[in-house]
Write a structure and sequence with these properties.
binds iron/sulfur cluster; 7 helices; 9 strands; 29% helix; 24% strand; globular; alpha/beta; TIM Barrel
């Protein structure tokens, strides 16, 4: 019997893909690493400063067979894939992540930690959002915490999240891009006083690459 579209989506054999591109990771621990990006559509976190609002409505993005995404990645001969969104874990990513592993491709997941966890990942970047806090399980898995700083009240949010993490987790503060000039010096001073944190810049924006 043929699977319906909704079953294919539910089982992770299809995914709504907003865009795919090959570039350098511009943020956090893996900055500067060449990676193929898969941006999965759909997000209900509603950050007011979100720079990919067009990703929010998953129905706007074509459903692509996961096998075709994997074939495309293999054809590009890339070593690393960044899975981002939207919030990619709104979809079951068990199949996608297992196919990446089977083909020896490293997977870097970017998540707000708000959806059901699925998949096995080589690197998990948890980027928690105040208006929709992450589920507790994500603090066990995160390799990296990346907190977006829009104003000084976000430092308290960053520290609250830090306290829940395993101690090996790498800690990053990243200026929200639209207030970069206003906030960057404040973040630098905060990191000087709290050196467990590091600065994450959106290097791709300075380089004008995707
Ligand atoms: S979690 Fe990411 S995609 Fe979703 S609204 Fe926030 S910044 Fe945008």
């Amino acid at each position: 019997m043929k699977s319906s579209r909704s079953n294919l989506l539910k089982n992770g054999h299809q995914l709504p893909v907003m865009e795919k591109f090959y570039s350098l990771q511009g943020e956090g621990y893996n900055t500067g690493t060449a990676a193929y990006f898969i941006r999965i559509g759909g997000c209900d976190v509603s950050c007011n400063w979100c720079d990919v609002k067009e990703s929010w409505n998953e129905a706007m993005h074509p459903l692509i067979f996961t096998d075709d995404i994997i074939s495309d990645i293999i054809e590009k001969k890339v070593n690393n894939v960044v899975i981002t969104g939207g919030e990619p874990l709104r979809f079951n990513l068990d199949y996608f992540s297992s196919e990446l592993r089977k083909n020896n491709i490293r997977s870097f997941l970017e998540t707000s930690g708000t959806a059901h966890f699925s998949g096995k990942w080589d690197w998990i970047c948890l980027s928690p959002k105040k208006n929709f806090p992450p589920k507790d399980i994500y603090f066990e898995f995160a390799d990296e915490l990346k907190v977006i700083i829009q104003d000084e009240s976000d430092f308290e949010w960053a520290e609250n999240n830090r306290q829940k993490l395993k101690k090996e987790c790498h800690l990053y503060l990243q200026p929200e891009w639209s207030v970069y000039n206003k906030i960057i010096d404040i973040i630098i001073e905060y990191i000087k006083l709290n050196p467990c944190w590091r600065l994450s810049l959106q290097v791709h924006r300075f380089l004008k690459i995707p």
